[in-house]
Amino acid sequence: MNDAQPPADRRLAAQALAADDPTGWFEPLYAEAAAGTSMVPWDRDEPNPLLVDWLHATPQPPGTRGLVLGCGYGTDAEFVAAQGIRTTAFDISPTAIRGARARFPRSPVTYTVADLLNPPESWQHAFDLVVESITVQSLPPAVRDAAIANIRILLAPNATLLVIADIAPAPATSGPPWPLTRADIDSFTTPALTQIRVETVPRPDVPDRHRWRAEFHRPAQPNP
Ligand SMILES: C[S@@+](CC[C@H](N)C(=O)[O-])C[C@H]1O[C@@H](n2cnc3c(N)ncnc32)[C@H](O)[C@@H]1O
Question: What are its GO biological-process terms (predicted)?
């Protein structure tokens, strides 16, 4: 790539958004990466340190059904499964899911292709722990409310939702990504989803940068 070209994610996102396809750039990006012509900018060898800290401090009971959404190549899903959590992980990109299975051939994780904007009906209220790390912010603001509403639907009674996102002081006007404001984080909350904690946590991997880490709980009975 020369200096005059935008990064692959922005180039492909611009094409997809011009075609009114908010998610149409992920598969081409992973396909370019598989062909060796681009890189997936969020790919990491290590699990997200904000997830690692949180899960070590918040051990989940035996039998917990976990869901990692927008799992990419699966690094975070493998960490979740290594904590004894029965883990499903999904991504809209078939190439990403093939990559996860190839990277972790003996994985206990159930990797599958699915679309957060149209999740399988059988997943409704089916998970005790849902992990959302920087996927909502990778979707344009026009579909953000729909994505968040669908995340809520995945939560079983008594479930926990962990949200990790980049911080925007004001609504982002260009992307990807479209980092989240405090109001965006608060918008996860409903009578059926209680906000437990919202933190701004320094990123150990990027100096002087922080991310939201927010924890929500779905009560067994919705709050009045
Ligand atoms: C910015 S990346 C984040 C990857 C990973 N969660 C992390 O924290 O590094 C967003 C991921 O979500 C996937 N994705 C985007 N929209 C999606 C959707 N509607 N349904 C499922 N996966 C989606 C993308 O393919 C990509 O792997």
Answer: methylation
CA 135 to ligand 1: nearest atom: 10
Per-residue pLDDT of 94-140, as tens digits, reads 999 999 999 999 999 999 999 999 999 999 999 999 999 999 999 99
| Alpha-carbon torsion (75, 76, 81, 83), positive or negative | positive
Q: What is the DSSP letter of 202?
A: E
Does 14 map to a domain? no
For residue 29, tell me if it sits in a domain.
no
Closest by alpha carbon to 47, among 82, 88, 95?
82
Q: How many CA atoms lie within 13 A of 53 on its CB side?
A: 12
What's the number of domains the chain is made of? 1
Residue 4 lies in a domain: no
Identify each DSSP E strand in 64-126 by its residue range. 65-69, 86-91, 110-113
Its domain, for residue 107, covers: 43-217
CATH number of the domain to which 70 belongs: 3.40.50.150
Question: Is residue 6, in this structure, part of any structural domain at all?
Answer: no
Q: Of 76, 78, 91, which is best to mutate to test ligand 1, by the most ligand atoms within 8 angstroms of its C-beta?
A: 91
pLDDT tens sequence across 25-47: 999 999 999 999 999 999 999 99
